[in-house]
Specification:
It is a single chain. By secondary structure, the chain is an all-alpha fold. The chain is built from three helices and no strands. Helix 2 crosses helix 3. The N and C termini lie close together (10 Å).
């Protein structure tokens, strides 16, 4: 979870640029990539990890 927080900290303010790069490198559209970034940011801010359990000890 802390790795995701760190990564999203780097992305903050650059969502459009990151979504554009994701669109270029994968088959995901820029729009879907941006929604995914927003969803991950919301999950981190709310403290949710998607139900995958606490992985901070790994």
């Amino acid at each position: 979870m802390s790795k995701l927080r760190r990564l999203l900290g780097l992305v903050e303010g650059h969502e459009d640029d990151v979504a554009k790069q994701i669109g270029k490198r994968t088959k995901v559209s820029e729009e879907k990539a941006k929604k995914g970034i927003e969803k991950a940011t919301d999950a981190v801010e709310s403290g949710s990890d998607g139900g995958s359990g606490d992985r901070s000890s790994y």
